[in-house]
Amino acid sequence: MQGTERDLNYKETELCLGLPGGGGGGGGENEVESSPKTTGKRGFSETVDLKLNLQSKEAGMDLNQNLETCSKQTACTKDPSKPPAKAQVLGWPPVRSYRKNIMANQKNSSEECEKAAFVKVSMDGAPYLRKVDLKMYNSYQKLSDALAKMFSSFTMGNYGSQGMIDFMNESKLMDLLNSSDYVPTYEDKDGDWMLVGDVPWEMFVESCKRLRIMKGSEAIGLAPRAMEKCKSRA
Amino acid sequence: MSEDDERQQSPPSDLEFVSNKARNCNATGSGSGHPEFQSAYPDQVLENVLENVLHFLTSKRDRNAASLVCKSWYRVEALTRSELFIGNCYAVSPARATARFTRVRALQLKGKPRFADFNLMPPDWGAHFNPWALAMAKAYPWLEKVHLKRMTVTDDDLATLAELLLGFKELVLVCCDGFGTSGLAIFVNKCRQLKVLDLIESEVSDDETDWISCFPEGESQLESLIFDCVECHINFEALERLVANSPSLKKLRLNRYVSIGQLYRLMIRAPQLTHLGTGSFSPSEIAGQGDQEPDYVNAFAACKSLVCLSGFREIIPDYLPAIYPVCANLTSLNFSYANITAEQLKPIISKCHKLQVFWVLDSICDEGLQAVAATCKELRELRVFPVDPREDGDGPVSEVGLQAISEGCRKLQSILYFCQRMTNAAVIAMSKNCPDLVVFRLCIMGRHRADPVTGEPMDDGFGAIVMNCKKLTRLAVSGLLTDKAFDYIGQHGKLVRTLSVAFAGDSDMGLKYVLEGCPQLQKLEIRDSPFGDAALRSGLHHYYNMRFLWMSSCRLTPNGCQEIARAMPRLVVEVIRSADEEEMDDAVEILYMYRSLEGPRTDLPKFVTIL
């Protein structure tokens, strides 16, 4: 473990966006090109639009699949000896369309399927709250554009060309947080406040309970926690 | 509940091949004297006696046998048959049926093949009730009961039944379509003697007619009203009045537009119910939050005769404890539209000691099935449906659940089990633990999926089922299967009457094994399996004994099917193209063939060719 101290420190503080076990988890479509750990820096913009197949500790949950299905124990992966299933085959599995329609029409399940992910957005100093439906966006970029429009009288400051925080660059991050610019933060399922952008988009949508846009200087306390959390996911 | 219920032990009764020998038989046997004079009186006496005796014969199988004894018996049997069952509406024409059986009071007809339920058949294929409705109205003015399955019934047909059949008492429509609330309105209004109106899993179009209000005013003889499949709002006040006016009402199954508050009001008016479908089992949206909730527990407690509970179409699980008072008496519980967890199920199921029939969603997981196995020692029938009916969906139930059920529910006779994974070991265990199995339908939702533990095909599991379950008459197979599985079925499945095959087998041998080995086979439905013309040929000796054969997306050619058609003149060989397919000359997409006395039917849609 005697790599250069600097390297180790860097690894500890690095916010990782890739797959915990190193790149290329369970055969997802858009694999990260290289292991984030080895090369370290990777522009955020490269990862923003990635659809990551997260092989998280919740054994093999493919986030690219419907998020609304109740989480159950996940089944074994498909039989490798046969061609992988593509689109659903007509009339298979043999569940009567009558029954399928009933399940689709049920209040509860349809609520889950179509349920928007509305979260409150507050901005420090702004007199009003807004609500956004996170499901309307598919990336941090789009969300940040929308937020910017919503709170247009407040500048979003120095976010870099992508419009969001570059977590990869620690010094840049600290600069931002030390400034009086605004950064978006969110409260996650566990009740912790995090910096927006530290996890893959889909995971963010799932775990975000509310958004708060605060001054960088106030958010400074969140950065280490965000990094820690990310590490613990690795 | 009768979702695809094949409980009747029915012989091939949709077709009668009366041997010529029987027709020529002389009943008296006396040889001397003037034949006409001498035989007239004894014949008449015998026939009168026979008539009285045969009235007691109710089983179809017995009646078919009796009709083959000789001409006299044939005649008398035909006069005394009051319940007519026709398993394939195209096997015999209305004219022929009404000509032979002149005193029918109850008619049961089945139309489309089962695979039509899964959208494998283009719509408007046929199975129209109309010619039957007209024939019945003329020939059987005293007809009381009609029971249809998978047929197209129009509003006019309903009107015909109601207007021309004065004593009509019972209408049961299972998996039917073609009619709407306006037809229902006319029907219930004109049928003054109506006792039973059961609409089960049928498609009813919403013509925005308030049909419930059309029941006649005053006291009604209604004993059963099942409309849980009707997907439209109903006039609740009218329903409440109807229930209040129906002291004989025993079965009531409400649709999802009836809220739990409304259910309460109905239940307190009808504590005599034996079968209840609860409707939505959630409050209506309009109900205020602060409104006093009625005492649901009390309402259920008052229903001391309740044995069959279903519904829960939009369940709010918080209300489940209301049913505790009836659990101990329940013999049948249908939770198959209720997305509940194991934890929510346990307090209910632990009280259901008498349960014999249980339908449920896989949302209860293996854990829920273990709870069922722990309590329901009298279980005869289990059906586990998928919440997520996709090939690669989540798999909340597995071999663990099946194993648990097999160990806990030794009296099991019928099982339908959807899952994402299954092992041979669990299936073998069930074959040994549940020797009374009559129906075994396992649907591993991933096609060609092997045993996840051993990597082997599922041949041995299904083999064990046919070997160990000596009473098995219905089997549906799935998962990765080689010809070996079919070899087992052909060798041991001697009582199998219905077989469903999908994405299975390696070669023609698979189908050959079955056609050559299963003498009782009546209904064979196959899809997406590599069986071709040679395999088809191997069943020539048997097709007249079958109700039908369905093969879709297999390896059949028009020539192969033509060969069968030529060899068997009493077989109707339909080649069906799915609507958007172009005509492909060298492949048969759907083959549906069935024996028939009538030859090619006259109501063919353009996508069907009869060879």
From TrEMBL, chain A:
Any idea where the PB1 domain is?
Answer: 116-216
- Spell out the Pfam families in the cross-references: AUX_IAA
Q: Where is the composition biased (Gly residues)?
A: 19-29
What is the superkingdom listed in this entry's lineage? Eukaryota
> What segments bear the compositional bias annotation Basic and acidic residues?
1-14
- The protein's predominant localisation is nucleus
- Subunit arrangement? Homodimers and heterodimers.
Function noted in UniProt: Aux/IAA proteins are short-lived transcriptional factors that function as repressors of early auxin response genes at low auxin concentrations.
Q: What is this protein called?
A: Auxin-responsive protein
Automatic annotation (TrEMBL), chain B:
SMART domains in UniProt: LRR_CC
InterPro entries tied to this protein: COI1_F-box, Leu-rich_rpt_Cys-con_subtyp, LRR_dom_sf, Transp_inhibit
PANTHER family from the entry? F-BOX/TPR REPEAT PROTEIN POF3 (PTHR16134), TRANSPORT INHIBITOR RESPONSE 1-LIKE PROTEIN (PTHR16134:SF36)
Show the stretches that span the lipid bilayer. none
Question: Which is a Pfam family this sequence falls into?
Answer: Transp_inhibit
All copies of the COI1 F-box domain together span 43-82
Question: Under what name is this protein listed?
Answer: Transport inhibitor response 1-like protein
